[in-house]
């Protein structure tokens, strides 16, 4: 804590603050709430600086083009050393919309209202052309095919040794069908969120409305179906169906949504191996052993 808070003070000497509370130590970031009104995110890994830089650029570009509040970076610094880069923004109102809270809502109109907000946000975000964002890492961007081909190679190399034979066969069949075939878009023309799940969707439980969308660290050019897959993984089929029914041509994306969703646990296991996170590895690989 001391080093990260000192980093803020050194970078912005006129920014004075007192209380700093760590609210999350996620897979990729340390997150702090400062004086109950500012959020500061520090990427854990050196590679996070480039990701954070692009996230700041994206947020500055999309904030007036989407229907829900998103973080507005006010303080940021980029360094090559792990734990030195950061982004700070005003705390958005609301708390994460967890699945158990959503499941307690019995009023269909309330559910439709939430679904409508999310569908409108995604439709607006996905309407933003990928080439309109001045990414520093633009040349590194991959097509959905290339992303999944690279993921498949990593799974075969790093995870297959830990998986039972029938699980390997099922994973191979899915990837061969969708990656080797023509079911994934050949190019990524739109911007996606990249981690559109419950922990990043804020809501007001009393008013039953979405109040903001956070954590755009995984954002970039991509397949819109990937965001809908994150939603489906978080909340299940019934609520996903409501959102997909309101999203333009949502029904046509179901096959890709299902495929992407099937990769999420494997991606978590890979993260665990690459970054030495045993908990993430065990959680992701559990159903494949």
TrEMBL record:
It comes from the Bacteria. SUPFAM superfamilies: Protein kinase-like (PK-like). Residues 21-244 form the Aminoglycoside phosphotransferase domain. InterPro entries: AGP_Transferase, Aminoglycoside_PTrfase, Kinase-like_dom_sf. Keywords: Transferase. The keyword Transferase applies. GO terms for molecular function: transferase activity. PANTHER family: AMINOGLYCOSIDE PHOSPHOTRANSFERASE DOMAIN-CONTAINING PROTEIN, AMINOGLYCOSIDE PHOSPHOTRANSFERASE-RELATED-RELATED. This is Aminoglycoside phosphotransferase family protein. The lineage of its organism: Bacteria, Bacillati, Bacillota, Bacilli, Bacillales.
């Amino acid at each position: 804590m001391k080093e990260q808070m000192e980093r803020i003070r050194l970078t912005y000497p006129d920014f004075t603050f007192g209380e700093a509370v760590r609210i999350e130590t996620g897979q990729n970031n340390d997150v702090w709430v400062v004086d109950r009104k500012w959020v500061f995110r520090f990427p854990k890994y050196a590679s996070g600086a480039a990701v954070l830089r692009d996230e700041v650029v994206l947020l500055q570009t999309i904030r007036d083009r989407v229907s829900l509040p998103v973080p507005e970076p006010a303080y940021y610094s980029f360094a090559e050393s792990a734990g030195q880069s950061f982004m700070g923004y005003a705390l958005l109102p609301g708390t994460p919309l967890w699945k158990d809270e959503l499941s307690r809502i019995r009023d269909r109109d309330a559910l439709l209202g939430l679904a409508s907000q999310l569908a409108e946000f995604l439709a607006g975000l996905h309407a933003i052309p990928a080439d309109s964002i001045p990414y520093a890492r633009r040349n590194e961007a991959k097509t959905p095919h290339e992303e999944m081909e690279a993921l498949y190679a990593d799974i075969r190399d790093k995870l297959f040794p830990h998986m039972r034979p029938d699980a390997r066969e099922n994973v191979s069949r899915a990837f061969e069908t969708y990656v080797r075939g023509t079911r994934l878009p050949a190019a990524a023309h739109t911007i996606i969120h990249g981690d559109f799940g419950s922990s990043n969707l804020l809501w007001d439980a009393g008013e039953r409305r979405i109040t903001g969308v956070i954590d755009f660290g995984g954002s970039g050019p991509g397949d819109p179906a990937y965001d809908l897959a994150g939603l489906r993984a978080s909340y299940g089929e019934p609520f996903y169906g409501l959102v997909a029914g309101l999203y333009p041509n949502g029904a046509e994306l179901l096959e890709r949504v299902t495929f992407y969703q099937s990769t999420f646990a494997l991606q978590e296991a890979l993260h665990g191996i690459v970054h030495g996170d045993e908990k993430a590895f065990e959680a992701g690989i559990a159903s494949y052993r």
